[in-house]
Amino acid sequence: MSDKKLGVRAAAGTLAAMSLVGGLLATTANATEQGTAAPPIVGGQAARIADHPWVVYLADEQGNQFCGGTIGAANKVITAAHCIQGEQPASVRVVAGRESKSSTDGVEAKVTGVWVHPKYQDANTGSDVAVLTLDQQLPQTSLPVATPADTASYEPGRMATVLGWGATSEGGDASETLQKAEVPLTSDADCKKAYDQYDPQAMVCAGFPQGGVDSCQGDSGGPLVVDGKLVGIVSTGNGCARPGNPGIYTRTASYQADIQAQLTAQH
Ligand code: ARG
After folding, report:
1. Which domains does the chain have, with CATH numbers?
2. Where's the Peptidase S1 domain (predicted)?
């Protein structure tokens, strides 16, 4: 089984609880342990698929969600390379138009082609982007990809929206329903402080200095959105929502030409 699937169940409970308590939940410490609903994504809220029709999830043949993605064209989905590397395309389903995993809403498309960025090795070295070709044209609208001209959409401090069905706490369970969170883009200097592998050309970071809000395991491949454009793809990070450890996203503008070529390719 691949790393990303195991990651959802990775142990980190006590540390995660402590970093959350240190963050936004200081006054409701141990809310999760007391049985209160866990904070979605991490520190987010429920989102409507109708408001974000281009967000999709990737599932295996049994229907188990393992990553997110973004509709970039009617029959193309943008996701993280690490989500699809090592998977059999034939066993991956793209689920579009389904807010709750327990519903049968929307469509399940099959994957007929996979493009992984040729320079991709692992999430720590960048190029964590892939484009899937589907067996059908989806009715949902697609999300434009940020271009190198969209510099204003990458300014540190800009609030970005991240969406997904991933874990709602570090080491916790994935969400049944679509969640979203708002996180500020981090400066290159601050991200480099947190991550030695940070490459400002390949990546962009987002998160509050005090942590508390983040994407998490299972959100990978999903969208980070600013100004109605895809500025990032959930890629990696040290734990989830930890203070001083923002989430790392693929900087889509840097790969826009390659992505765009794939979105218009017929295969
Ligand atoms: N690699 C994870 C996945 O495959 C996503 C991790 C995102 N981490 C973060 N702290 N934002 O689902």
Report:
1. 1-267 (2.40.10.10)
2. 41-264
